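We close this part of the discussion by returning to an individual protein. The sequence in question and its structure tokens are set out directly beneath this paragraph:
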Amino acid sequence: MSAPRAPRRDAAENREAILSAAAAALNDDIDASLETIAARAGLSRRAIYGHFATRDDLLVDVFTRGAVRLASLLEPVSHPDARVEIALYGATLWDEVEHVRVSAQLAVRGPHRDRVAEALEPARERLRRTVARGIAQQQLRTDMDLDTVARLIENAAVSVLDEATRTGMSRAAGHRLVMLAGLSAAGLGWREADALVAGTPELALQEVSA
């Protein structure tokens, strides 16, 4: 008598396995093939085509899903001091992407960056509101308009991601740098930014749970 067959995974579970495998595989090799992704998901290449017509379609879903998750993580970030809130945005972003920094870099720099930017728009709007509050309270630079300052802060975070990917920067170093870069873009001097980060317990690097 033959052994009972293991139950087949349903379509939703297979799709989740594909997306998770793709995110991990792309971080190891940005040119990872569908065969590599399928093997990592424990599926066949044909199974991937049951969910995604092309590799490009798969990448779009991986990147936009990551952007939506990041936006949801940034939504509850709040602090009475706009400067600390900006630093917290950077720290939250870094904590989410530092372990997949290669694929995250492709998401924001690559051909699908417009789709990613669209998914990140709620987070961008939150940042603009924080910057507006900081400018009104004269905590942030007032020599530029609101949208420009917000873009500079966002670009500073992306530049840290670029540098971290290029140099293999440690988690702790990236955590600190992304906050300092964002605060510098917001108009703080480097000594002021360093003192704020060092003296604010909420900005300390959180231990990774086992």
Q: What stands out?
A: The chain has two domains: 10-53, 60-203.
